[in-house]
Each structure stands twice: as C-alpha cells, then as structure tokens.
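Hi,

I'm pasting everything inline rather than attaching a file, because the server keeps stripping attachments. The sequence lines come first, and each chain or strand is labelled.
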Amino acid sequence: MEYSNQRKELKVSAIENGTVIDHIPANSVFRATRILRLDKMENQVLVGTYLDSKKYGKKGIIKVSNTFFKDDEINKIALVAPSATLIVIRDFKVVEKKQVEIPKKIEKIVKCVNPNCITNHENIPTKFDVMKNENGIYLTCLYCDKNTSKENMVFL
Amino acid sequence: MKNRSLLSINDFSLDEQLKILTLAAEFEKNPTQKILEGFVVATLFFEPSTRTKLSFESAASRLGAKVIGFSSLATSSVTKGESLKDTILTVSNYADIIVIRHPNDGSARFAAEISPIPVINAGDGANQHPTQTLLDMYSILKTQGRLDNLNITFVGDLKYGRTVHSLTIALTQFNTTFHLVSPVELKLPSYVKRHIKEKQLSYFQYTDLLDGIPQADIIYMTRIQRERFSDPIEYEKVKNAYNLNNSMLINTKENMRILHPLPRVNEIALDVDNNPKAYYFQQALNGVFVRQALLAAILGVK
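And the predicted assembly:
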C-alpha cells in the first residue's frame, strides 16, 4: 500500500517514520494521548478529531513521528479505543498494521472507583485485572477487589 | 504456609484452611506452649477492634511471643502524617510478623506487597477479614463435627456484613445449603450469590426470621446498623424484625448452634445466652486458637 498516494487528501499530514493510531472514537482522542503520555513527548505529534470515516462516521487519528510503541504501551488505549488500528510507518510506507488488543492487566492509568480503596488514600499506583462481561470491559482492583465499570473510569 | 501472608481466605487453599483448623484443635487442647519464644508480633490497629486485637495478643502471649504495636491513631506516628508505607517498612524492622487492621479496603494487601515480613489481615475496611472466617469455620466444625452438607442460616445485614460474605464464599467449598434471612434492602449481594450458583448449591431467601430457623444446623446472626439506611423510617421498620429470642428456639434441631461475630446489640435477646444452643462467646474464644494456629504456621514452627 502506497501511503504517500493519499497525502493530498489527508487532513492530518503524513509522517515519514513513526506510528499512526487510526480509528480512535472521535471523543476519545485526547484521553488516548494522555494514556500514551504524548503530552510529555518531544517528537512531532499530529492529532485529528472528528474526521469523516466511512467505517465509523466520525473518528480520531494520532500520528507520532519517530516513535514506535511496545505492545503493552499501545494496548493501554484499548480501554478507550478498542477499535483502534496501529500502523507503523517507515519511509512513508506502511510496514505493519494491526488492531490494538485489550491488555490483561493495567497499572497506573485508571483511578479505582471505590472511594475507600487504599489507592485513593495513599500514594500508590493502581493495579487492575481487565475483565469483560456482557456490558463490555471493566476493571477489578487488585487491592480492594471492587469493580470499576467503563462509565466510571477516571484516567490519571 | 511458612512466611506467607493471609490477606483473603482465598490466599490459602482448602487443604491449608483445613490444616489451620486441625492445628487450632491442637492448641485448644494445649493452649499454653512457649513455641514462639524469641518472636515479635506487631499488631497495628489503625482503627479500634477490641476482640480481634485482644485475641491476637492473647494468642501470641500464650505461645511465648512478644507483642508490640498500637491500638489507636493517637499513639502512632500516623497523626504526624506518616504514610502507611513508611509505618509498615519501619515496623517490619522490629517484628517477625505484622497483624494489621486498617479502615481502607486493600490496605492489608498493599502492606503485604511492601513488607519483607508476612502480614495477617485483621480487617481492611469493608473488604476482608479472613481470620474471622477461619474461626467461624472452626466453630461450625467443632459444634457439628463436620463442615460438609450443613444448612446454614444467615440473619440480618447480609448486604454489608463482610463476615457473612467471606464465610458464605468459604462455605461453598462444603456443599452447604444457604438460608438467607434479611430485609429486602439488605439482601446478599449478587457477587456473593454468584459463588453459590457457580458451585450449583441451593440458597433460599426469606424476610421472616421464623422461616429460616427450623431447618438450620447453624444460625449466624449479624447486627443491622442504623448507618446503612438512607431513610431512618426504613431502619425503624426493620430493626426489631430480626431479634432472636428463646421462645423461637423450641423447634430447632437438637444440635443447632447460634453464632454471632459480635458485638451484639439487641438482635439476640439476653434470655438466649443461657440456652445451650448459644455459642457466640465460645466462638470468640475459638478465635484465640485459630490465631495461635495461624501465627505458628506462618512463622514456621508448626
């Protein structure tokens, strides 16, 4: 696939080398940037929100130059963007394309919903098992054993 | 079990739980043995609990261990703003095992994660209280001669009662039939019922106390707390609905025993205390033997 062919139509310009995260739900883009700590990044980061998408209606996209994420880093955004596609670009060409995968465990990025949980009283990084039921993803706190549902997730 | 922490009843396998009960029976026969001489047990009670603290300290003392610790925040550095982490790391220099009671859920697991010495959870917020579960199991085993195939009736606040949740989950290992008596507002939560259903055991729910009495091998009473109700009128309606008195015990099984994690308020009438079926004070004593067993097993001398 010749990535450079599409350049003239792109709302968010192409990158030469780096990572493109596509098909992010339009309203989750900034949460995804926070989860990936892109605000601390010293590389070019291009962000597009509410772009037209044939598949999803509206979508978001993030392009990060000269950065290649490890699977466990990138999979953290599956919590807010389970439909996201990861595209690795080298020399303007797509060299790898895959779906993000929901991780089995996550640390630090979400607050435990239980106000009495020790992680909300001491300076302790949160830890959860990622679980799934008929309503989607939820997190079980490894300290207090309480469940944090998708609607209750507050990102740190 | 040597050097292992006990934070939730599930941290010990069924075999290990039964081994603790066997050891507890040995200590009941011979409660004073100086097998823990030279060991130091730290009891860190960040919130008050008379029974649990004293029974741990009694257990440790009868085995010859020294006990250090605090029983209220006023006598600890926490009032100076010390973090739980710093308290645990400091105390672990002074002791061989930590017993912790703390108001926050998950605090004991956190303590165990950072502590180089084993930790016993003596109650973390509304979460777990595994030594209570073991002493309840011991009391059931001792009075019934078995844990299998019993009819256990739980009465009162089944929604918030952490001892009820842990014991229910533990009893699903023993083909128990559950009888659950509570006001509609305080029914057993679905996550606990799921454990019963997963093992395909039977449970029956009642709102009338009398419905749960005749079939019971054990009646496990709990206190209904005013602060659980958002509507004080609702509390007034239910608070006297679950008072067990002597006249209700006429048609009970010969070998039935009444348990209660204590403290009791008015859910068991005083006239029950002299009935041979009342077992709650012996139950509290059993806590000492079970805690002796735990200290000895975790410190590696049994």
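Strands of chain B lie at 40-45, 66-70, 97-102, 119-124, 151-155, 177-181, 203-206, 218-221, 257-259.

If the labels don't parse on your end, tell me and I'll reformat.
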